[in-house]
Structures are given as structure tokens and as C-alpha cells.
């Protein structure tokens, strides 16, 4: 079984977020939070 190291992608994401201002981080958090609350983003594959 082949394993893929996805940590570098998370590290890049964390570094990009760290460069944002606090207001930008809060806006991003609000967007992600709203998306997670929407049931229509989970598509049924039937």
C-alpha cells in the first residue's frame, strides 16, 4: 500500500493563512464555517 505524505500541503496552507491579517483570517473562518453548515455541499454519489 502506497502512502502519500500530505503534510507539506497543510504546511503551505498554514503558512499562507499566517500571512493574512486578523480580519482576513476571521473572514476566511466565517466563510468556511458557513460552508460547513450548508448540507448542499455534500453531494450524494448515486
TrEMBL record:
This is Uncharacterized protein. It comes from Tectimicrobiota bacterium.
Amino acid at each position: 500500500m502506497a502512502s502519500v505524505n500530505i503534510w507539506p500541503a497543510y504546511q503551505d496552507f498554514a503558512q499562507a493563512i499566517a500571512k493574512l491579517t486578523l480580519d482576513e483570517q476571521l473572514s476566511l473562518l466565517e466563510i468556511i464555517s458557513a460552508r460547513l453548515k450548508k448540507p448542499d455541499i455534500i453531494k450524494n454519489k448515486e
